Amino acid sequence: MSARLNSAQPYAIGLFRIVVGLLFAVHGAASLFGVLGGAAGTGVDAGTWPGWYAAVIQFGGGALVLLGLGTRVAALVASGSMAYAYFTVHQEAALWPIQNGGEMSALFCWAFLLFVFTGSGALGLDGLLARRASAERERPADQEPVTA
Q1: What is the pLDDT along the chain (148 residues), one digit of tens a residue?
Q2: 35-50 burial string, b = 16+ CB within 10 Å, else e?
Q3: Model-level pTM?
Q4: How far is Cα 60 from Cα 62, in angstroms, rounded to an integer?
Q5: Long-range contact list for 8-12, CB < 8 A, 24+ apart?
Q6: CB atoms within 10 A of CB 104
Q7: CA dihedral angle for residue 60, residue 66, residue 68, residue 72, rounded to 10 degrees
Q8: Could you tell me which of 85, 81, 76 has the C-alpha nearest to residue 103?
């Protein structure tokens, strides 16, 4: 049973990455563009600190994590932004996340920190690009592509 679950681990990480990335990107899109349940068709004013920058990180970082492209770096930045959000916005209100409304910030922070260490898992562009680069390096000299 354990071996079977272990063999599915990259796919479970990949699916988890896709869901977390999608949710984070949607949150950023709602803040930036006022869509998908955002603030009645209006987004955050461009350049306002920290809301606009957080929304850009959420939208861009979420999209990168969703695609599995540059996952570790994007996840590190996203995790840091959520830690910042928790400690500067939510922690002031109360100690526990359930009391201060910071559950989502804490969950996103720890989920993205997990991706820093696990990578994108299966189904990500990181793995596809790594396999393609590996195949390019291993191609014998007599199989070089013909150019016109």
Answers
A1: 888 888 989 999 999 999 999 999 999 888 888 777 765 556 766 767 787 899 899 999 999 999 999 999 999 999 999 999 999 989 888 888 899 989 999 999 999 999 999 998 888 988 888 888 887 777 665 666 667 6
A2: eeebeeeebbeeeeee
A3: 0.82
A4: 5
A5: 9/121, 10/121, 10/122, 11/121, 11/122, 11/123, 12/121
A6: 16
A7: 60
A8: 85
